[in-house]
Amino acid sequence: MRFLLKPGWIALTLTVAAFAFACYYLLAPWQFHRGDERSGDNAALVRAVSTAPVPRGELVAPGAAPGEDVAWRQVTVSGTYRPEGQVLVRLRSIEGHPASEVMTPLVTTTGETVLVDRGYVRTDGQGTLPAIAAPPGGTVSLTGYQRLDEGAPTRSAVVADGQRQVYSADAATVAAAGGVATSPGYVQLLPDQPGVLTAVPLPPPDPNPSYSYAWQWLIFGLMAIGAWIYFARLEYRRERGLEPRPRDRQDPRDAADGTHWDAARPSATDEKLADRYGRR
Question: Region Disordered: start and end of each range (predicted)?
Fold first, then answer.
């Protein structure tokens, strides 16, 4: 199998080996890991929203950031809205339509200030905001989902349509724009709560195609190895003279004595001479 030492075959062998290694040890494991993460996120979301509401203070210490284990848990808070610190989160997409989410601080009865997502309003075709109803005064009791901060945006806050607006649902970012400091995270109101506008719906379950992608990478790696084996075997047989040439293969149209079907046929005179003097 000296042909394997030729530069072309060396390059092909290294390429196939690198591709198969990437498929089996990098790409497929990465997709399996992504699939496990997405399945875990889906299960956590279902488990969290199906759990009965509890006071927020039982899950999150005052002033502390909520952990991932309490994300989407239903919580209750009581307190008074502070509309002077209200800020909108712009450029959101809800059910396929552009919208802005309305974030309003709430001073709880325990003295902590938390951020409340009162829902969303839709913009018109020109991006203009409608009138936004003010939150109710006095002490209110609310139920919502505990959400984690999305992180600081890369774009600065703006003022448009008379509203302070930011690009991320992040408590620190909203506090910097609205002037009212709040604890990390925020509470996303359920429908029919005091001060809610149009409640932000729950996200749909992740379809999680990662497992099928992982199996595809495994199959691609196997196909690459199989193709290399096939062509190496073919080259080996040619090198040993075991692979017939194209003209050596019998055509179904050939004569029984092996004469090729498109060979020139002898004339009648040639046939008579051959019968009298024999064929060469």
Answer: 242-280
For residue 141, is it left (φ>0), alpha (ψ between -120 and 50) or beta?
beta
Cβ burial 232-258 (10 Å sphere, 16+ → b, else e): beebeeeeeeeeeeeeeeeeeeeeeee
CB 81 within 8 A of CB 104: yes
**Would you state the pLDDT for residue 37?**
84
* Euclidean distance between CA atoms 8 and 157, whole angstroms: 58
Enter the DSSP assignment of 126. T
d(CA 217, CA 209): 13
β-pair type (87-94, 113-122) = unpaired
Q: What is the pLDDT of residues 25-61, one digit of tens each?
A: 999 999 999 888 888 778 878 887 889 999 999 999 9
The confidence band for 268, taking pLDDT boundaries of 50, 70 and 90, is low
User: How many of the other CB atoms lie within 10 Å of CB of 111?
Assistant: 8
Give the whole-angstrom CA distance, residue 91 versus residue 129: 12
- Identify the H or E element spanning 211: helix 210-239
Measured between alpha carbons, how far is 251 from 202 in angstroms, rounded to an integer? 68
Query: Which pTM does this prediction carry?
Result: 0.67
Helix, strand, coil percent values for the chain (each to nearest 5) = 40, 20, 40
Helix axes 7-22, 210-239, angle to 10 degrees: 160
Measured CA angle at 71 (ends 151, 102), to 5 deg: 60
